Hints:
By secondary structure, this protein is an alpha/beta fold.
Amino acid sequence: MKILFASMPADGHFNPLTGIAVQLTGRGHDVRWYAGPTYGARLDRLGMPWFAYERATEVMASNLNEVFPERATLKGPKLISFELDKFFVSQVENHYQDMAAIRHEWPFDALVCDGALYAELLVAESLHVPVFAVGLTMVMPDAQGPPPFFGLSPARTPLGRLRHAVVRKMLASGMRAGTTHYNEILARHGVAPIRSDGFPHEPMLRTRRVFLNGSPGLEFPGYQPLANAEYVGPLVPARRALGASAALPDVVVDPTAKVVAVSQGTVDNTDPAKLIIPTIEALRDSGYVVVATTAGAQTAVLRARFPQPNVVIADFINYDDLFPHVDVFVTSGGFGSNLTAFLHGVPVVGAGKREGKSDINARIGYNNLGIDLRTERPKPAAIRKAVRRLIDDPNYARKVADLRAELQAYDPIEAIEKRLLQDTATTRP
C-alpha cells in the first residue's frame, strides 16, 4: 500500500507519527512523508522518503513567537483564536494544493495525518482519498464533557453545566475568525462547511477513521470518543527521530537516588524561569537528584547557575533511557512526554496552561495520575510539596501502575494496519 504521512510542523504532532511510519515501512508498505525542511531533515535520519513543501510555509510552533511577536502577549480566548487562524488554518489551502500535486505524481492509497493538520478534510472530500487522522492529545471533546482549552473538569452540578455552556459559546465566538477562514477555503472546493463550534474535532469527524493516542484511562470517566474514533494505545516515536541523547551520569542511575525530571517542552521553553528554575530551586537542597532537559534553551546559563552535583542539565535526554530511573516528572503538560512517563510508571506534576496543556493537566489531576498545579509559573514551595506528596502517597503509584498496564495491553501498529487495509480495500486510486 502507498501511504502518505503528514503533520503540523511541531514536535508533539510529528514525533508520535514516526513510530507508525517506520513500522509500516518494515511491514512492506511504501510510506512517504509530506514535510517542510526542518522536519524533512529528521526524516532523512529515519531513511524516510519525503515530499517537500512547495506552496506551504513551515511556520513552526518553536518559532511562532518570532514570526508573530504579538502572540506572546495573548491569553485565553484571544490566544486560542490567534493560534487557530495563524498556525492551523493559514496553511490549509497550501497544504492541500501540495498534497494534490503529490498525488498526481505519486498516487497514494491513503493519507495518515496529524488530526490538527485540518487539510485532511479537503483530501478526503475533494481528492476522494481515504484519510486516517491521528488524535494526538486529550482535547477531543465529547458532548457531555467539559469544553476544551480551559482546564475544566466534568460538571457535577447545574451551575457547573451552565458554566460549561457559557464557555462553549465564548469559544465559538472566539474561534469565529479562524472558522470563517476555514469554511471559505472549503467553499472554494465545494466542500460543506463545519459548524461554528466545529474546532478542534469536526474535520476529523469527517475522515475515514481517527486513531486516538493512548487509552481511556487518560480521559475523564465516561468519555465518549467521536463516532469514527478508536483508541489504539500509546504511539511511541521512532528512536532515530528524536536525535542523539546525552548520556546518563552516575548520580542519575544510582538505585538509591530519588530522581525528579523537569521539562518545559519544545514550544514554550525560552523562559526557564517559568518551570525549570523554580523546580531546581525547590529541590537542589532536598536530597533529590534533579534532571532538567532544556531542548537547547539556555543550557549553558543554567549549568553555570546551578553547579550542584545533584543537578543535571542537558539539551536532550531520551526519556525511554531516563524514566526508568525517575520517581516524579515535573512538566508543563506536553502529552507525548507525559505518556512516556506513564509508560514507565512515573507520576507527574503538571504546571502549564497554554497550547492545550491545561486540559491535559486537568485530566491527570482528576484521575490521580499526578498533581495539577493549575498555573504556568508555580512557586518553588508548591513544586516541592507536590513532589513529596507524589513520592510519599502510594495511591498515585497505584493509579499510574493501572494506567501503565492498560496502555501496554494495546498493539498500536497491529490495530492501525488492520484498519488501513480494511478501509482502503474497495477504494480505487
